[in-house]
Every structure is written in structure tokens, then in C-alpha cells.
Amino acid sequence: MTNPIFLTAKRGPAITFAALSTVILIFLPIVSGVYLSVGKSNPAPKIANALLAKSEFRDAAANKLIENISKDSEGIEALLFEAKAKEIRAALSDAMGTKAFEDEVVVITQKAYNFYIDGDAQSGSIDIRPIASMALKAFSKVAPLLSLAEGQIKDIAPIALTSSKSDIDLKQIKTGFTGLVFVLWIGFILFSALYWRFASNLHNALKFSGIQSSVFAVISILIFLIGSAAGGSIGGNSADQLPQIAIPIVAQVLISPFLTLAILGLITTVVLVGYLYTLVKKQLKPSN
Asked: Which of 2, 93, 277, 284 has the fewest CB atoms lying closer than 10 Å?
């Protein structure tokens, strides 16, 4: 027996709500992917994990750090960096690959996120001494003479995070964007439910919803593919080795939610089409 709440076969309202839900659907993959990528939580820990897991990135970052330190070094320190650059780079790269180093990077990025995005005034400074100490220990394994600088690390002052009234209120933007995502999803669900209320029959309703979920999946996968290509292109156009390696990795982390959305859209499509196929098969089955 047909449910009197749905499938009431009213063409005008069905077309109207189908159009409204489709308009919202076009924007849903975009805002949902962005929300999952950077709006829901801090993406920096995932980025740090992905970057530090790549030995190529660690080597390039170690090279960059050694280059910056050695150019300001004098005397014996300068000679050590010049003579043992390869060994120091390898030791520093290994140190950057440890769980302890990654944890400290995550702490730093989380404090910056809490301060600038969530407006947490308690996270107003970053202590870089733990990372500096790990780097120095890595140097000292190759050149023990550099361990003499260990006493200077405690004098490194925390980096103060500051913001001015003229800065963009990222917390307000995040809150507003989160609200927009939920409003769009509620609107889509509401208009879809109203379409089902006025749809002519179950076959048409299932077919239309299946088309919508496939469109959602296609838009999501297109964004993922375009983002991947753009990240690789931007990184490849850089003259510096570090961004060449880092940019594609960062891009991949940021756009990965779009692939998840595409998979969910495809699964939904398969379920709806499978159910529709079952209904059609039952109807076509000859009665005894």
C-alpha cells in the first residue's frame, strides 16, 4: 500500500523541489569537502604527518636548515658544516622522522590553529626549544663539538603569536562557513524529502535520487583530480626543491576528503540503482 505522506503524484511541486534540491546539490560537494578539509578541525597535524613521513621532504628540509645555519656560521662551526654537511643532513633527517619530533610539530601547529582560528588567547606563544634541542642533538652525533651550544637553547624565548584588530577574524569565518554547510545540507534533505512527497512513483523517485548521488560523486572526483593536478603543477614549477616536494603532498592531504565524498556518492548511487533494478525485475517477472 502506498504511503499517503510520500509519492502523491503532484507534478508541479515535484518539479519545483527537484530543481531546488539539485541547485543546492551542485554546491554541496564543494562546501562539504572544504569543511572536512579545513573547517572541521586543524589539518596541520595530518599535513605534518604526511610530510615528515617522506624521506625526500625530510632531506630537503634538512638541507634548507643546514644551508641557513651554515651561512651565518664562522670559524670552526663553519668548517664543521662544510666538512660534514652530508652526515649532518642525514642525522637531522632521521631526527625529523621520529615520533617525538612529529609530536612537537603537531603541538606547534595546534597552538597556532587554536590562536588564529579558534581565538584561544591561552595559546599565544610557541616554544621551539624542544625542536631546537632535537636538531642540536642530531648535529652533535656527527660533530660533538656542536653540543657546546646546548646551554644556549634554554635562552631561546618563545615565539609570541600576535594579531591586530585589522586582521581578518578567522574564527568568525569558520563559524559562518560551518553554519552555511549545515544550512545547505538541511535544505537539500528538506527539498529532497518534499520531492519524494510529490513524486509520481517510487521508480521515478529512486531514479532521480540515484542521478543526484552520481552527480555528487562526479563533482567530488573532478575536484579531487583537478586539485591533485594543480598541486603537482604548482610544485613542479617551483625552482626550490622543498616546495617541489611539499606542495603536492599538502595538496593531497587537503583534497583527500573530496575522494571520500566521491566514494560515498558512488556507494549511494549503487544502492539506489540496485534497489531500483530489483523493483523493475520484480515487475517484469511473469506471474504464474
From this structure: 284
Spatial separation of the C-alpha atoms in residues 198 and 30, rounded to whole Å: 28
Question: What percent of the chain stands above pLDDT 70?
Answer: 90
pLDDT tens by residue, 81-114:
677 778 888 888 999 999 999 999 888 888 888 8
Q: CB of 14 within 8 A of CB of 198?
A: yes
The C-alpha atoms of residue 33 and residue 177 are separated, in whole angstroms, by 12
C-beta separation of 120 from 114 below 8 A: yes
